[in-house]
């Protein structure tokens, strides 16, 4: 099966890697290798904080109200000159598309569970930490090769070959977890908050896209790809510039906050793309392949999550100052 791999999926695999640095946003927390055990340790200047449930509740209310406002603004009925609402095949009128989208999101959830499990297990593995300590650059490049190779293999495997496709998909998610395992050196409360915030952002934007009365978000593909190129270039520039460079803070902010906007837009785009493919599948024009459909939304979630982690880590370091 000859499947065309969208170029933006490659860029989304690379876009978060510059954020996994040994110093996050100039924070005082850094990672070092102890000589006797060669285990990574995190130097923390303050005690681990407990999870702020009141802030989480406030965030939930804010995201809920924001989602309602965005839904009202973007999903208002599109009328023609005669005042007739445009007929559009929404989730409410097409049960097959609704089931197709739901199955795609189940694969997203499964991939995220595999990624989190892999990251946590490898973080607790002394042998993996020693390998990372010996050659971090080689380990990062190897992780990228395995991740992208597994993604290409998944997308090029015919959906009827379920065993091979699911094995490659699981390999893709597990390899991504290996690349994200250094995040577990951070305060667990930061990771929990970042996960909650990311789930709220992705969930609300997906709801907006899924309940849209038109396919307007599919037309964001071109601008989003251009924005993704800018974010990727700013990430690479920030990775190679010296710490004393005047342009470094600007590139860092562009990669961080610009990336949040771009990947938020990709959530809208990818959700409606899954729905559009579901309509084609229901008509027999395209093969059913919810595994491939889930990859884009999964990468959106990962990229937003990593940026939320960095924002929260930077906020904590600024408070300690």
From TrEMBL:
Source domain of life is Eukaryota
Question: Major place of localization?
Answer: membrane
Annotated GO CC locations? mitochondrial inner membrane
- Tell me where the transmembrane regions lie: 135-155, 167-185, 191-210, 217-241, 247-269
Keyword Coiled coil assigned:
no
Q: Give the UniProt subcellular location, in the record's own words.
A: Membrane
Q: Print the keywords alphabetically.
A: Membrane, Transmembrane, Transmembrane helix
The annotated topology with respect to the bilayer is: Multi-pass membrane protein
Parts forming coiled coils: none
Pfam families reported for this sequence: Bax1-I
Q: Which PANTHER family does the UniProt record give?
A: BAX INHIBITOR-RELATED, GROWTH HORMONE-INDUCIBLE TRANSMEMBRANE PROTEIN
Family, according to the entry, reads as follows: Belongs to the BI1 family.
What name goes with this protein? Bax inhibitor family protein
From which organism does this entry originate? Rhizoclosmatium globosum
